[in-house]
Amino acid sequence: MARFLLTAMPFSGHVAPVAAVAGALVSRGNDVRLYTGSAFRRQVEAAGARFVPWRAAPDFDEQDLPATFPRLVGKKGFAQLMINMEDLFIATAPAQLDDVRAEWGREPWDALVSDEASLAPSVIAESIGCPWATLAILPLHLVSQQGPPPGLGLRPGRAALGRSRDAALRALIPALSGRINRASARARAAIGLPETRDGFERQVWSAQLVLASGVPALDFDLPDRPAHLHWVGRLASAASVPHPPWWPDLDGRRVIVVTQGTQNVNPDDLLRPALEALADDDALIVASTGVRGEDALSFPIPANARTAALLPFDELFPRADLVVTNGGWGGVLTALSHGRPLVVAGGDLDKPEVAGRVDAAGAGVNLKTGRPRPAAVRAGVDRVLGDPAFRVRAVEISAAMAAAGGVERAATLLEEFAQ
């Protein structure tokens, strides 16, 4: 038996894969604790892990971030991304260290396992002196010496001109990361750690073990990945939620699913234009609002549409012909695990990167905006449904993810690491 502390930033899309790995470790007889926000206590305990709450760290509501982080009021796009990085993923690191250091004092662990979004795991491992593995639950954004910087959603250049573009963009990273790196330096100084020459984009990664969700086909096939990186496919099952009352309407119908995830859930961004675009389609259009308790939208929906707050995607996607999504990584991996092609409208945070990777893998279409016009959604749907190559490629990626081993492979690698 090994002792693990797992940590996850308190977002549904972060906690779900980390809790799934926790459950696999518990089932093998390991002692597992999971440190995250109080909203996820039940989910952590359902996995069999011991729950460790954010106490000193500000315990926030993922669907009302401005209530805890007021600089986010009215912010979207790049401004939202930068404040998220500074206030959520960096500035909370000292308080997270206080919480985790207190837990270490009560009972040490053999290995720390953390998602890659926050500065906190690196300062925890450095301050306490424990082995640390990264569980990459977002599209892999390890810095590479080939291709463009991660986050832009650009395909790596293959010809000389494209490679020159990529090199020029990589050279801009220090200048573009200055604000983030200064925030990281302030957090390290507040903890009493020495300065580091590594930027934030390197500090969030363990140099010992990285387990990445997904498969190489969704990584632009970059060749210079480190030896301590292991691809493990899909890590989390979709949430178990009851069938909505209209579930029998799916029987005998062609189905298109529209989902906008659980962050930035303004339905005007994607749900409204998608429902408008597909109002005359002979398919049943199934849309998730992404907000617990809100099964209906605030505007009239067409006769061929059905809505629910949350949906059992692992039951729904096998019945769908296509998924229209905002590009949340968890939802994309779920759709591809069932061999379903995608139309991706990725507007902010990591979503443009996800959209670019799906497009480059040949498993879907990138609309290149998070707020598409109905005509663009219609064109994307027609293109994907009209070309069987998209479905073929999605099925190939599904097979690759299954072969990667999922949570059981991740648990095996973590047990070996802890020993």
From TrEMBL:
Please list the residue ranges annotated as the Erythromycin biosynthesis protein CIII-like C-terminal domain. 275-404
Pfam families, alphabetized: EryCIII-like_C
Name of protein: Glycosyltransferase
- InterPro entries recorded for this chain? EryCIII-like_C (IPR010610), Glycosyltransferase_28 (IPR050426), UDP_glucos_trans (IPR002213)
Superkingdom of origin organism:
Bacteria
UniProt source species? Microbacterium flavum
- Chain segments annotated as transmembrane: none
